[in-house]
Amino acid sequence: MFLCWCLSLVALIPLTTSTNPGVKVKLTAKGIEYGRQLAVASILQKLKTIKLDDMSGKVKVSPIGKVKYSLTNMKMVDVGLPTAALDLVPGTGVKLSIVNTYFRLEGNWRVKYLFVKDSGSFNLNANDISISTSLSIKTDQTGRPAVNSLDCGANVGKTSIHFKGGASWLYNLFSKYIDSAIRKAMQKQICPLVANAVSDLNNNLKTLNVLAKVDKFAEIEYSMVASPAVSKTSIDFGLKGEFYNIGKHQEPPFSPAVFSLPPQINNMLYIGVSSFTIESAAFVYNTAGALSLYITDDMIPQGFPIRLNTRAFGVFIPQVAKRFPGLMMKLLVKTVKTPVITFEPNNATVQSFASVTAYAIQPNATLTPLFVLNLDSSVSARVFVSGTRLAGAVTLNKMDLTLGTSYVGDFQVGSLDSIFQMVLKMVVIPRMNVQLAKGYPLPTLGKMKLVNTQLLVLKDYVMIGTDVQFTS
């Protein structure tokens, strides 16, 4: 499974290389080793299914003469793959080599010569078996990867057969003829089984979340934007890593900047997520109108002395209480342009630009605007991995209020600072954190689990180092 996940990332090679990636991934030698183990286990299971058809024939054995034989009920009882290597071939793909493999078969024998008929059982040991296959990856019509075997070679080096029952000491005299027939039959089955194992990868590749839904507003695309850089020890590749509105792929008015993952070897996998990816999410949600919130009095903590009504606000803006006495109020907090995300070493901040419109709620439930404030705020972001999703939480750094429009005459905006700091800290930010905690999906395949995960905030991107496990 891990192998096909690795291959799927390599396979998503685009038609153009003009776009910088928003997400970069490095598969290390440690990850390749884990992929080798899973690939060998998969092939081992396939080889255990080898079934040889019944065989019969005639051989001339001195001094007996012609001997008719038949071998039936042959089945595999043991398979071992002691030595295997999975190598990256720069500019080509992946090569899997398995040597010193052994098989053990059991079956029944029957012979007839002259006027003698005899039968019994046998076991056959096959040693020094070698298997080699090279894989290429293409993209199918749906944009998903498809794996193909470029070549496969298999050789059964040594076999030895031992007959049991009857006059088996005599029949061992012509065992070399049987050895040859079984060896050829086994060699014919190995590569088709390896090809079958490779073809099974394609079903798993279909689970790759090239386009992953986040929620009702957004999805994120993980297609490749450039050919992977393959070395002997790692694969480095770039993914688009861009958010889009569901069903509408509108490009934002900004592009990803160039960034590079530093050399790393401790984890199987390293994922770099740029500030562009997060900003494209902010652009999508802002375009969808999702970055807005109506705040009513029942959302204000009970113990807080300031309520959302004209009497309380009349303390700071007397004309509000005079013109609209005894009315409840409602606030609309809405972004006016896309928030700006900044990643610096060990520090992530978000600069938000919003408007706050205050309304008086009339007895007939209509809303009468009172004033509009410009609210610029800065929050610190904590970024973390939750399961296979990248999540976050924010805390308020500072805010700045200015008057945009007043429908009740001039007033001192500074007198409202404490109220709106409370609104941000106790209402807006907690709701933001509930959504941010849900996170968005990282590129994954099937039942993939991230373990031993670490995250660093670096210049213009965050880097996730992780090991990987697959559950059946």
Automatic annotation (TrEMBL):
Pfam families: LBP_BPI_CETP (PF01273), LBP_BPI_CETP_C (PF02886). Disulfide bonds join C152-C191. It is found in: Secreted. Residues 263-466 form the Lipid-binding serum glycoprotein C-terminal domain. Residues 1-18 form the signal peptide. Its main location: secreted. The keyword Disulfide bond applies. GO terms for biological process: defense response to Gram-negative bacterium; innate immune response. InterPro entries: Bactericidal_perm-incr_a/b_dom, BPI/LBP, BPI/LBP/Plunc, Lipid-bd_serum_glycop_C, Lipid-bd_serum_glycop_N. Residues 26-248 form the Lipid-binding serum glycoprotein N-terminal domain. GO terms for molecular function: lipid binding. The N- and C-terminal barrels adopt an identical fold despite having only 13% of conserved residues. Belongs to the BPI/LBP/Plunc superfamily. BPI/LBP family. The cytotoxic action of BPI is limited to many species of Gram-negative bacteria; this specificity may be explained by a strong affinity of the very basic N-terminal half for the negatively charged lipopolysaccharides that are unique to the Gram-negative bacterial outer envelope. Monomer. Homodimer; disulfide-linked. This is Bactericidal permeability-increasing protein. The gene is LOC117532956.
